[in-house]
Amino acid sequence: MGNKSNPAEPGSDLSRREFVISAVGITAGIMMAPSILVATPGTKEIHKFGEKMSMKTRKLGNMEVSELGAGCMNLSANYNVAVPKEQGINTIRKAFENGVTFFDTAEVYGPYINEELVGEALQPFRDKVKIATKFGFAIDGTIALNSRPEHIRKVVEESLKRLRTDRIDLYYQHRIDPNVPIEEVAGAIKDLIEQGKILHLGLSEASATSIRRAHVVQPVTAVQSEYSLWTRNVELNGVLATCKELGIGFVPWSPVGQGFLTGKIDTNTQFDAKADFRSGFPRFSKEYLPLNMPIIEWIKGFAAKKGATPSQISLAWLLAKGPNIVPIPGTRSEQHLLENLGAHRLELTAADVQEIETTITKFPIFGDRMGKEFMSQIDYTI
């Protein structure tokens, strides 16, 4: 059946490497009226529009953030055309109004326009939030990496300007650059921390080995990798264990499986070949998507029993996996934003987590999580 991997077993993902770069955004959402409830039909209410949320906090290293963050990439990049600027600003500010204090972006999203959007949206309450952004791509029309110290010193100034701030709370190396020793990268960030331009070092899609090497030079505050109910590689390659051992926070990106775990994607879903990267991702292909549907059908049924949505179950499961885990779901729809944030009210018991994991391990996952070009820059060479 081609490329087949179980989310609870090592798959071909672990031996490859990936990168994320783009100039387009996620599918448009519809702004819903205040009377609409975020819950599955026939179930109890998880959240009602107009009702502000309060959210607990968690620690990424020694940096305190809301237990759910906001991934802002989808507003400007990756899964379809960018949203209108006003809609993007409103979505970011709506997240803040509902307790989110941790916002994630990158210079490569757009490129550049997502940082500009985040900077403008957060400027009125900059001191009340934490901003994470990323460096490491050449952004020269290729997929080349560039983490040379001189390049880092240049692009940090550009990111600071776009973000309208004098410091970046968390600065991730977006992908490990095989041409630059990680110690040199960590050293460059250490210098910027001493200058006050950066407050914390992060790594994205890094192996346990790279995390340890960087941590010796400059303590790593957070590691960001894809992690969800259908992408569980970090449980097996030592990344999660290393973060726990060293007191490093872990930030799952695509915590709802690039939209798959929302339950809103089915075999009739069409992905724009020009604007949506998922059109080239094996898991979403016409060959493999039908084979992957059983897992989401089961999650839908479990969610209905809990009076929740599949997205909320997926996020609540991640929150239950460890106190150092802070998912960053991304959306551009107010409806979906509040649905996602409602997950913080859904407390899964140990029995719930066991049932979820025991069941989903019975469903094989078909196809790599991204295409070969993207997987080629994942630092899982361990």
UniProtKB/TrEMBL annotation:
Signal peptide: none annotated. SUPFAM superfamilies: NAD(P)-linked oxidoreductase (SSF51430). InterPro entries: Aldo-Keto_reductase, NAD(P)_OxRdtase_dom_sf, NADP_OxRdtase_dom. The chain crosses the membrane at residues 20-39. Residues 67-357 form the NADP-dependent oxidoreductase domain. Keywords: Membrane, Oxidoreductase, Transmembrane, Transmembrane helix. This is Aldo/keto reductase. It comes from Methylophilus flavus. The lineage of its organism: Bacteria, Pseudomonadati, Pseudomonadota, Betaproteobacteria, Nitrosomonadales.
